[in-house]
């Protein structure tokens, strides 16, 4: 790549060769103009005007509060529909199981898909988590701005199980006990 000075020198030489057929006073003026232009361009840098900075709140930030509210409404529905399975009070220090369930809700609040996402392998806790989710259906209708292009919303919820098989949902969970009895 040619340096800026060498590029301008070549440009000046080409321009000068084109104006050679002109009278000498025109040729001199053209060379002087070209030299001044070359000198001005080599000492300057071109800075494009800055676009005004527009700070837009990301959609994720706007939807975050709405998503938290919806997650709370879903957890409340699960707790209300499964009172005999819900642990009241403080979960034990060493939980029997933690089951993370992934589920998809359509625009009407119907659970269209659910699966155990993560577990410690406790089959009974897994089946209880999935059954309590099914019993809670239909869930509250999700806000339209949270839905994806298929009109659905994918969520995760954690079921925290004590040894007696009762659970708390992470959304509403109390702090665990600090000592093992």
From TrEMBL:
Coarse class of the primary localization is membrane
The name this protein carries in UniProt is: Energy transducer TonB
Q: Record keywords: Transmembrane included?
A: yes
Ranges for the TonB C-terminal domain? 71-170
**A GO CC annotation given for this chain:** membrane
NCBIfam families (UniProt xref): tonB_Cterm
Keyword Membrane carried by entry: yes
Q: What InterPro entries does the annotation carry?
A: TonB/TolA_C, TonB_C
One Pfam match, given by its short name, reads TonB_2
Q: Tell me how this protein sits in the membrane.
A: Single-pass membrane protein
Where does it live in the cell? Membrane
| Example GO biological process | transmembrane transport
Cite the entry's keywords alphabetically: Membrane, Transmembrane, Transmembrane helix
């Amino acid at each position: 790549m040619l340096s800026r000075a060498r590029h301008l020198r070549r440009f000046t030489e080409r321009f000068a060769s084109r104006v050679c057929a002109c009278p000498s006073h025109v040729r001199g003026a053209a060379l002087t103009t070209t030299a001044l232009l070359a000198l001005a361009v080599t000492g300057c840098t071109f800075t494009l005007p800055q676009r005004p900075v527009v700070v837009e709140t990301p959609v994720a930030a706007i939807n975050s509060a709405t998503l938290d509210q919806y997650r709370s409404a879903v957890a409340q529905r699960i707790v209300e529909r499964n009172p005999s399975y819900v642990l009241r009070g403080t979960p034990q220090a060493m939980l029997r199981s933690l089951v993370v369930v992934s589920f998809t809700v359509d625009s009407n609040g119907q659970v269209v898909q659910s699966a155990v996402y993560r577990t410690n392998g406790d089959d009974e806790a897994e089946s209880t988590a999935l059954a309590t989710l099914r019993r809670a259906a239909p869930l509250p209708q999700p806000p339209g701005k949270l839905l994806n292009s298929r009109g659905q919303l994918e969520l995760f919820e954690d079921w925290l199980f004590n040894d007696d098989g009762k659970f708390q949902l992470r959304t509403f969970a109390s702090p665990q006990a600090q000592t093992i009895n």
